[in-house]
């Protein structure tokens, strides 16, 4: 008998049988074809007696079951159904059924299946007691019988083996293992008894069935979006998701428990700890794999992981979130990708992000440890939380991006969004961590000559200003900030903060005088290779004029807020009349930042200043825009009819683009295709045409992305409505 | 700059600096000896000016600080103090201090220390602002100054580097790194502001300072005990505990957070996932290491792990709990070892332990997956849970024995004992799992000829009958069952169970008729190689006499309840008069079980029977007793005076004991010694004498254990009161 990986015989005295952690099983492990009754004392005959009933065919009724279970889109030869809902089987016998004939249908999953563990279910159709799944006879047609079987709404999820057993005189005669009757059982958002139930049909179609999405990126005031092809129905993806659970050695018993499943998933999507799906890489060096910006979706990643068993290189937060979303939707769990703009990180779970400045007012990069991510992506799953008090069900945060501080391990959630909004941080899992990501204060410190820090300003508004997800049934953003937070300054917000502090979140309570002199920065959207114009406003709310010695600091930053390259320092002085605002226009030329971009598109500008010992600071992050790929389709938009797509691009820059790699895909339309150009000279145009044959009907999207050595994140998309 | 293990340059865009996860640091990383002020614009002189103040000596005042901080027992050349409590330092200068002289004491821990992360603390002694630790000048004696320093009660715990810096004209002049002034900072059970505060002094002495303990084992009705030498003060142990945290890559920032620390500890004590301290082995084959029964305490295990970095072979639950207890007490955390008798396991977190019987009433070992451990050991830590609602502070379960089902990972707790008692399973961590260990019902199923299970009896009393720990200040057991559970059948118990079900714990609700016929087994204590006498009582509460066809099944079992060897089947019939009890005496001869013992001492007897289709079952587990080692001491019982201990043993059996290995130790008295005998013939005596020199005074204990191929768990102990 096979043992789970990592279990040696050192555990023989620990378990009666090895704990099954793999959905796979060796043929012949399940049953003998003829199993005599234990209690039968008569001489045993292993051949069925003449005239005995026997099964000649088992039909899983896919054409009927798949539409009823909303599983038609799965490109899978086997039946896929959802739990808590009846499906049909047609069983054909060698003769008409007569009084006294007794049969049962058996579903088995994993090794050592057991009725007490929900991994071996016998379904009976008469008065004889069977397992917990309901069975009924719907129709008798000659020697065939159509049965209806309803798995329980808390059944184990995965791939079951199906057997039909008939009772002969002194034993049970079973059908042989037939891989064609294997059946996938999923979570069911359409079933009110399933903890993943979603009442609204438009939401179920979006959060379970939509295989195309957009993920928001950029920065507050300069939000951009990226298409992501979830592709949860593409060939091989459902098996890849089960492979991930097997790799994680998650006991089969627990796979019907939604909370354990999503928590395990958040750990398995990243490769830390457990050899999971994706390797994080936040450098500018992706030579050992694919840059995170080059993926168009999850399909290639999941297939590569399932085929090789080796973590796929490389990911950043939106890749973790995109692939996790595919995993969740593929298993039937309603889910969506969330973007939190100005996300606090690495601040050890307290509610302070500490930024440190030198005595002359310039940023002290050496002593600043915390960073504010321009944005961070995670997932939400829609779950009824029976493990928590009432009111905390609904959307739950799960995050697959490896975080140092989540329980010391690389997993996060499920954490109730409602609990975060109320500051109820006393419930599992990791709510204090998520709370800090959206609610931290930014504390500005001045570091004195002795190394001592003194706070001089606290910004309570900067972190978690905006939280976005794709809207239901459209490609527009939906602002979900209010689901995480009460309005800043409201009484409810104060209660939430007080509750969070009672549960151990540390906040800053420095007594700081109200400053009468403030500064802010405004920047209009800028494309790569354009000059940046900063409008810096100094506001003097006092009754005396002030002279400010100011400084502009410019850096290329990673989206994690970490400095890639500091490229500009500029001192200037401004006189601000009493009760007025003085605007200074500063220009940063393209030549100043272009040599330092690498593969990043983020620029951070910090204006600091001092007047009469009163320090002031403003920070502005922008994301540079990129040109687009143009995409057009032609041909008859109909299932199984050939169509064509053309991707074209003209280099608008005065520099050549080197090693340009293009990728394109569209779930239900076309699997991933790639094309490379070693160089695209200034002004040069490229055009790339591919044919495809749509598999699924309805509104569908094709996306393409181009990544070159010196310009990334060039996107294109085209929508097409395929007729049935 | 060194990077934490596992962090490659793929994370350069992720963190401003590598996250410090090691308490160690390379010399010279901290500071230059002379650090000019950032803001000093004058030409820089790197030599102190003439007449400048300079530090000539730093004295950590161990003879004063150690008794005040209850750390005298640590066999460590450096100062060990507890946080939230003042300690003294004497700093000697090159001349008398004068007006205007300015100095500060700096404490650093880990790499990249930072004042905003609590890993670099500057203590000032005047009006100038410093870090969060309070400093005051206590005494000026010529050129020396005695200062008092009070670390905050939430400070990072570990080994700090100490520097004294004086302000010269244009910079800071620091003392050189001196390993002799390194200081260990621990959790403080004596400090009301520390979350580990224990108000009662006797409890603090037991749960933090006692370095000797007993761990309860055996079975209900046959409780035995094992001495365990915690040895948390022995040489090298404190460094080994810090090494464990470093191996776990736990960020230094988080080490002052008691909840994160104990949770990380529970994961690190076992080798699964993370290359931790101990390798579990529940087989009878320990050829690759030391049998779990052969350890006398934690010291050897921790030193071996710290010296090699390789997990130590082998452990079972009491070894995990014993070593974890050392780790906790060594770091200043109040803790104790708990034994739960008849502990439910591997039942996927629901409240059912399913035992399956065949149609003829005999145990169906092939289909039974769950097991009931004769006993299971875990730890409790005493913590104020600021992260939970009021009422859930106090003792918290933490368990280092690897469990499959705890959050899918090999860690467990901290889980509030008060929350378990109330069924409040909606709070972190793992309370549902611990709740099931002490509250599961045992459900007896009959498996019919078709493989279907039918429950016929539910035993609500069997699991978690008795929960023991060592009493404060004595070697007797303290029954703490009532801290986990309300009395069975009480109204409070019903409320707890209802609450647990509301939070998702599944229970059995089979409607079963009250049986009028029951059976029970009683067995008097038995020594290895003695016959076992079973008194089997059949009670008939009905008004008609009953004839019972009964069966006795006997097995050698591991302490995990898993069958090692089934050795006896015996059928018998008994007639039970109406309203009477009929006793049957059954004898199991020593020759029947002795060949199958291996290294186990547990026997399980199951009596099943049937009368008029009514099945009945009784289960009884016993642990065979073993002979004792005799230990005597001689010599003057005084610190630093030579003494002698003699261990003697006579083989009482008619068989030879092969490969007998003896080990002996006593914290504060003697480090571990071992001795081997290849054979001890029947009737033969051995005597082993060792000398030792006591290091610590007070009541102390020496223990010895003997393990041979065919007899384990032979113990001896002797107590001695050492004069100062």
Explain this structure to me?
Two copies of one chain form a homodimer. Chain A has about 725 residues and is mainly beta. Chain A contains eleven helices and 38 strands. In chain A, strands 1, 3, 5, 6, 9, 10 and 11 form a seven-stranded mixed sheet that branches. In chain A, helix 3 crosses helix 5 (about 300-310). The two termini of chain A are about 50 Å apart. At the A-B interface, strand 6 and helix 4 of A face strand 6 and helix 4 of B.
List key phrases describing it:
homodimer, 39% strand, 38 strands, 6-stranded antiparallel beta sheet, mainly beta, 724 residues, 7-stranded mixed beta sheet
Give the helix/strand class of chain A.
mainly beta
How many helices of chain A in DSSP terms? 11
Q: What is the helix fraction of residues of chain A, given as a range?
A: 10-25%
Mean of the pLDDT scores of chain A? Answer: 91
N→C terminal distance of chain A: 48 Å
Largest interface: pair, residues per side? A-B, 96 and 96 residues
Strand content range of chain A: 35-45%
Poorly predicted sequence stretches spanning 5 or more consecutive residues of chain A: 1-7
The count of DSSP E runs of length 2 or more, i.e. the number of strands of chain A, is 38
Radius of gyration of chain A: 30 Å
* 3D shape of chain A: elongated
Oligomer: homodimer
For the largest beta-sheet of chain A, the strand count, sense and barrel status come to: 7 strands, mixed
């Amino acid at each position: 008998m096979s043992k789970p990986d990592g279990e040696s015989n050192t555990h023989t005295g620990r378990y009666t049988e090895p704990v099954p952690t793999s959905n796979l099983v060796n043929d012949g492990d399940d049953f003998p074809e003829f199993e005599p009754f234990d209690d039968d004392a008569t001489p045993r005959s292993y051949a069925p007696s003449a005239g005995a009933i026997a099964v000649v065919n088992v039909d899983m009724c896919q054409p009927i079951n798949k539409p009823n279970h909303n599983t038609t889109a799965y490109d899978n030869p086997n039946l896929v159904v959802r739990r808590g809902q009846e499906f049909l089987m047609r069983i054909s016998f060698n003769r008409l059924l007569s009084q006294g004939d007794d049969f049962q249908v058996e579903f088995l999953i994993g090794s050592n299946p057991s009725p007490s563990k929900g991994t071996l279910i016998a379904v009976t159709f008469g008065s004889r007691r069977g397992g917990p799944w309901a069975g009924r006879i719907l129709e008798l047609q000659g020697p065939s019988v159509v049965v209806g079987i309803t798995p329980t709404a808390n059944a184990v999820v995965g791939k079951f083996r199906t057997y039909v057993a008939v009772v002969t005189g002194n034993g049970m005669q079973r059908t042989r293992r037939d891989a064609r009757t294997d059946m996938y059982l999923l979570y069911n958002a359409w079933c009110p008894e399933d903890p993943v139930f979603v009442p609204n049909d438009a939401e179920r179609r979006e959060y379970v069935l939509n295989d195309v999405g957009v993920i928001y990126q950029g920065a507050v005031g300069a939000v951009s979006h990226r298409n992501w092809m979830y592709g949860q129905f593409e060939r091989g993806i459902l098996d890849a998701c089960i492979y991930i659970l097997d790799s994680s050695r998650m006991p089969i018993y627990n796979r019907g428990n939604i909370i354990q499943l999503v928590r395990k998933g958040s750990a398995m999507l990243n490769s830390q700890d457990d050899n999971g799906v994706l390797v994080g890489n936040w450098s500018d060096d992706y030579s050992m794999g694919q840059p995170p910006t080059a993926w168009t979706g999850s399909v290639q990643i999941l297939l590569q992981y399932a085929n090789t068993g080796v973590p796929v290189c490389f990911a950043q937060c939106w890749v973790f979130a995109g692939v996790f979303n595919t995993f969740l939707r593929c298993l039937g769990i309603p889910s969506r990708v969330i973007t939190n703009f100005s996300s606090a990180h690495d601040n050890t779970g307290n509610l302070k992000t500490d930024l440190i400045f030198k005595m002359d007012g310039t940023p002290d990069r050496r002593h600043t440890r915390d960073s504010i991510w321009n944005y961070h992506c995670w997932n939400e799953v829609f779950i009824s939380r029976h493990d928590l008090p009432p009111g905390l069900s609904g959307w739950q945060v799960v995050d697959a991006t490896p975080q140092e501080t989540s329980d010391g391990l690389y997993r996060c959630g499920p954490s109730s969004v409602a609990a975060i909004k109320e500051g109820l941080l006393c419930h599992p899992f990791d709510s204090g961590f998520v709370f800090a990501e959206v609610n931290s204060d930014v504390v500005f410190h001045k570091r004195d000559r002795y190394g001592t820090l003194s706070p001089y300003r606290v910004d309570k508004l900067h972190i978690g200003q905006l939280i976005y997800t794709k809207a239901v049934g459209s490609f527009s953003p939906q602002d979900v900030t209010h689901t995480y937070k009460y309005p800043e300054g409201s009484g409810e917000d104060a209660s939430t903060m007080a509750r969070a502090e009672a549960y151990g979140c540390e906040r800053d309570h420095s007594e700081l005088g109200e400053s009468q002199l403030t500064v802010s920065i405004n920047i209009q959207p800028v494309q790569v290779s354009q000059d940046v114009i900063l409008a810096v406003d100094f506001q003097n709310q006092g009754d005396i004029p002030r002279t400010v010695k100011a400084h502009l600091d410019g850096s290329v930053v990673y989206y994690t807020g970490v400095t890639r390259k500091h490229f500009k320092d500029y001192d200037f002085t401004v006189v601000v009349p009493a009760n007025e605002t003085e605007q200074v226009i500063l220009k940063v030329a393209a030549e100043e930042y272009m040599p330092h971009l690498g593969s990043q598109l983020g620029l951070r500008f910090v204006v600091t200043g001092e007047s009469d010992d009163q320090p002031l600071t403003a920070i502005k992050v922008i994301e540079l825009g990129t040109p687009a790929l143009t995409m057009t389709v032609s041909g008859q938009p109909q299932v199984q009819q050939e169509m064509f797509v053309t991707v074209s691009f003209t280099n608008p820059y005065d520099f050549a683009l080197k090693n340009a790699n293009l990728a394109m895909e569209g779930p239900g339309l076309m699997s991933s295709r790639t094309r490379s150009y070693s160089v695209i000279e200034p002004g040069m145009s490229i055009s790339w045409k591919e044919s495809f044959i749509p598999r699924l009907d309805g509104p569908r999207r094709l996306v393409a992305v181009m990544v070159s050595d010196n310009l990334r994140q060039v996107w294109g998309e085209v929508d097409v409505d395929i007729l049935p």
